[in-house]
Structure formats: C-alpha cells, structure tokens
Write a structure and sequence with these properties.
mainly alpha
C-alpha cells in the first residue's frame, strides 16, 4: 500500500476502534442519551481548545473564513445524528435502531454518484451489499421479528442520513481545513445544536452521579476526540464512499467488545455476519484502489 494511503487507513482503524466504545458509554451513563451526547461534545470541545489555539498560532496557513461553513454545517449534522439516534432507542428496539442507523453508506454512495459524479465499480456495490448484509446479521434477527416501521425507526433512518451528510460535507471541508481545527469547529457547532435540542426536550443538565460524569468525560476523550479526529483525518485523504462502508466495522467491533465489557455474547449467526461484513468492506476498498489505479494510468 502506498505511504500516502497507509496513514489514512491507520487513522480510519483507530477511529473505528474509538467509536466502537460509544455504545458502552451510553449504557454506562445513568442519563438520557441526548444528555450524554451533549456532554460528550461539550467536554471534547473544551479539551480541544488548547490544540485549536496552538494550531491557529503556529500554522503557516491561516484559517480561511470562506470555508468555515463546512465544519459548522457538519457540526449541525452531527448534532441531529446524535439526537435522532439516541432518541430512537426509546421508541424502537436497539437492533432496529442500530441497523437503520448504519445505512449511511447507502446514502453516501448514492450522493457521491449523483451529486459528485464519483465513478463506482460494480464490485463496489457488491461489496457494499455484502457489508450491509453482514451488519444485518450482526444486530441479530430481531429486526425481522419486529418489522413495524414506526416513529423510532423513522428517527434512526433520519440519523443515518445526517451521519452520511456529515461524512460528505467533511470530505469536502477537509480539503481546506486541517483535522485539528476542523474537528474543533465541528464540536462547537454540534455542542450548540445539542444544547438547543436538550432544552427543547426538557432534559436536565445536572443531578447525575460521579460515575456518570466520569462516563461523560470518557466518551468525550475516546469517542469524540480520538474517534472523530481520526475519522476527520481519514476523510481528508479518502473519499466518503470508502470511509462510510468501512465504518460498518464499528458495530462488529462493538459486538466483540460487549462480551467482556457488558457480558453480551453474540450468537453464531452474528459471528457469521461479522465475517460477511469484513469481506464486503475488503471488496469495497479494493474496488476503490483499482479505480484509482485505472484513473492514474489513464
């Protein structure tokens, strides 16, 4: 693999690992999902501030205000993603919410094809179908046992669209803003968005125990700072049509981590789903590499 491809893929792997802990933190926090999301964003934005200031002072390239709208818009998409998905869990099964929330690769691929004219090989679509099929098996057969497409399912589907929108905007925005400053600006915008949403939902911002506050801090550092910074870096070097399907590896790793951390043991069919999804992810990435090689030779 070329050196300029190696580091983005390493960053993508780190991002997937960090984001895989998100479900654990939500389970450990004794607080509403949107509140956990709010403090995840707030604490990470505060902790990132010194890095942002340092980058502003030392960067040879000043922040071009013409492109600030990219991270600000991405932040709003992130806020809606967090709010919709966390709320959807209250109105539908966790399996439904997880499956529908991870359909973002479909929206990314369609948008990349229609709006950005990215050429996608047939093998890409085959790999994407495999990856999504594997994700279906990973979250279990509960989705088919409760197929009613209700309010919670609608919220989870909306969350997937907002997550896909974040990836597409970030792919473009990272062409003009480095990952540290981009991630911080996304955090500011998303924090304000989550603040407004929690106020509208009437959620309390205080009165939580020490363990929950530590969970808020943990998810800020691991899921947001490490996870989103790594994904932001990867999106600056890889197209969203590749990053998004690869992120399907997140629920696979979450299922593995849930064994020691939550005492949840996946069923054999879920292990099969993990293998199918990984094969799909591999085919998607190989398809992209072959497409790049063909364009370079042309």
């Amino acid at each position: 693999m070329p050196q300029n491809r190696l580091f983005p893929y390493i960053a993508l792997a780190i991002g997937i690992i960090a984001l895989s802990f998100s479900a654990m933190f939500i389970r450990w926090a004794d607080a509403p999902g949107p509140i956990t999301g709010f403090y995840r964003l707030l604490f990470s934005t505060i902790l990132f501030l010194p890095f942002f200031i340092h980058r502003q002072r030392t960067s040879p390239t000043p922040l071009d205000k013409r492109f600030i709208w990219f991270p600000l818009l991405a932040g709003l998409f992130t806020a809606f993603d967090f709010a919709f998905w966390n709320t959807s869990v209250k109105y539908t099964t966790a399996a439904n919410a997880t499956l529908l929330g991870n359909t973002s690769p479909l929206w990314v691929a369609l948008a990349a094809l229609i709006f950005f004219k990215e050429k996608l090989r047939r093998s890409f679509w085959f790999g994407l179908i495999l990856a999504l099929s594997g994700a279906v098996l990973i979250v279990g057969m509960d989705f088919f046992s409760h197929p009613t497409f209700g309010f919670g399912d609608l919220l989870a589907s909306a969350a997937a669209i907002f997550y896909a929108s974040y990836q597409l905007v970030t792919q473009r925005g990272r062409n003009h803003i480095d990952p540290f400053r981009y991630t911080w600006l996304v955090g500011v915008s998303a924090t304000l968005g989550m603040l407004v949403m929690n106020l509208l939902l009437g959620n309390s911002f205080f009165g939580y125990n020490l363990q929950t506050w530590l969970v808020f801090l943990g998810t800020a550092i691991v899921s947001q700072m490490i996870g989103y910074l790594a994904i932001s870096y990867a999106l600056g070097h890889l197209p969203a049509s590749i990053v998004s399907p690869t992120l399907i590896g997140q629920p696979i790793l979450t299922a593995i981590l849930a064994i020691p951390l939550l005492g949840e043991f996946p069923k054999p069919i879920q292990w099969l789903g993990g293998a199918v999804a990984l094969v799909g992810i591999y085919i998607v990435n190989q398809s992209h590499l072959h497409t790049n090689a063909k364009q370079t030779n042309a």
